[in-house]
From TrEMBL:
It is a peripheral membrane protein. One of its GO terms (cellular component) is mitochondrial inner membrane. Keywords: Lipid biosynthesis, Lipid metabolism, Magnesium, Membrane, Mitochondrion, Mitochondrion inner membrane, Nucleotidyltransferase, Phospholipid biosynthesis, Phospholipid metabolism, Transferase. Belongs to the TAM41 family. GO terms for molecular function: phosphatidate cytidylyltransferase activity. Pathway: Lipid metabolism; Phospholipid metabolism; CDP-diacylglycerol biosynthesis; CDP-diacylglycerol from sn-glycerol 3-phosphate: step 3/3. This is Phosphatidate cytidylyltransferase, mitochondrial. It catalyses: a 1,2-diacyl-sn-glycero-3-phosphate + CTP + H(+) = a CDP-1,2-diacyl-sn-glycerol + diphosphate. The keyword Chaperone does not apply. It comes from the Eukaryota. The lineage of its organism: Eukaryota, Metazoa, Chordata, Craniata, Vertebrata. InterPro entries: Tam41 (IPR015222). The keyword Cell inner membrane does not apply. It comes from Lynx canadensis (Canada lynx). GO terms for biological process: cardiolipin biosynthetic process; CDP-diacylglycerol biosynthetic process.
């Protein structure tokens, strides 16, 4: 599996992991603290380390983590692990973040997501939030033998390649492909309009071409719809309507549904396959796919950022309102 190629042997990451309950199906580190970026996030030594912990039983995991790391949580800790898990699963993108934590002399942020919700996101792109993180190079720190999770991780990478192909011309460079892939989870993200560096995607890809190649190389070589000229760093794909229809039919379910919503006029209620056949013949096929992506990413990024208000304990008024809603 391609993701295993980027497993980290870093002692520092495993030391940080030792501060948390062990029951993890997957743990990975990502972002500018792990992989070098250019621009404002280039200070890798002092950058915050970002982690995601995937757990089979969030209530049990949070219960143990509250005993070990009570001070990591916002006011929600007084409501207990069940309420924390409710907020995690039902608001935003299915992930609960504890930010701005000092651990082993490093500033870290960690998110917790249930294994089942992650698998759904990897396969169907319900939110394309953590699935989007996993389309870029990450450091795998721990992974158990969950076959369904491993298969979903691989499917997510293949879906990223197919989606990028639909938005690219017939011939393009590796860098073009990786920029398109890295940008998938930022399509429609309001943070790219307000606050985030507009060149963020370029800053992620340019210093890490080798890592992207390691992540996607075998998938590209095995894909029957692409001619991958490794020595030249060039790729050629089938842009015929037949080729694009084949690609559209393999897209994640939620993206297919959003494309159908973009193209389906009110009251017509065509089935998804009929819509995808029309899109395959449309000269603006790539733009339609991009609109479908935006329809997934925009709401999930806004809801997750709003949830951050509560989990980071920034506004007590909003916290009190949440408390009232939950009771």
């Amino acid at each position: 599996m391609a993701l295993q190629a980027l497993q980290s042997s870093g002692v520092a990451f495993r030391k940080i992991l030792s501060h948390f309950p062990e029951e993890l199906s997957l743990a990975f580190a990502y972002g500018s603290g792990v992989y070098r970026q250019v621009g404002p996030s280039s200070d890798q030594k002092n950058a915050m380390l970002d982690f995601v912990f995937t757990v089979d039983d969030p209530v049990a995991w949070h219960s143990k983590n509250l005993k070990k790391n009570w001070n990591h949580y916002s006011f929600l800790k007084v409501l207990g692990p069940k309420i924390i898990t409710t907020v995690q699963n039902n608001y935003g993108a299915g992930v609960y973040y504890n930010p701005l934590i000092m651990c082993d002399g490093r500033l870290i942020k960690y998110g917790v997501i249930s294994t089942s919700i992650l698998i759904e996101d990897l396969l169907n792109w319900n939110n394309l939030y953590i699935a989007g993180r996993l389309q870029k190079p990450v450091k795998i720190i721990a992974m158990n033998e969950n076959v369904a999770l491993r298969s979903a991780l691989d499917k997510n990478l293949k879906s990223a390649v197919t989606t990028a192909f639909l938005m690219l011309p017939e011939s393009f460079s590796e860098e073009d492909l990786f920029i398109e892939i890295a940008g998938l989870s930022y399509s429609g993200d309001f943070r790219m309009v307000v606050g985030e560096d507009k060149t963020k995607v370029l800053n992620i890809v340019k210093p890490n071409i080798a890592h992207f190649r390691e992540l996607y190389g075998s998938i590209l070589q095995e894909n029957p719809q692409v001619v991958y000229k490794i020595q030249q760093g060039r790729l050629e794909i089938d842009k015929s309507p037949e080729g694009q229809f084949t690609q559209l039919m393999t897209l994640p379910k939620t993206l297919q549904q959003q494309i159908n919503h973009v193209m389906d006029p009110p009251g017509k209620n065509r089935d998804v396959e009929e819509t995808l056949l029309q899109v395959a013949h449309d000269p603006d096929c790539g733009e339609v796919v991009r609109q479908g992506l935006s329809a997934i990413v925009r709401p999930s990024s806004m809801k997750q950022s709003t949830k951050g208000i509560f989990t980071a304990e920034v506004l007590l008024l909003w916290s009190w309102l949440l408390f009232c809603l939950l009771h």
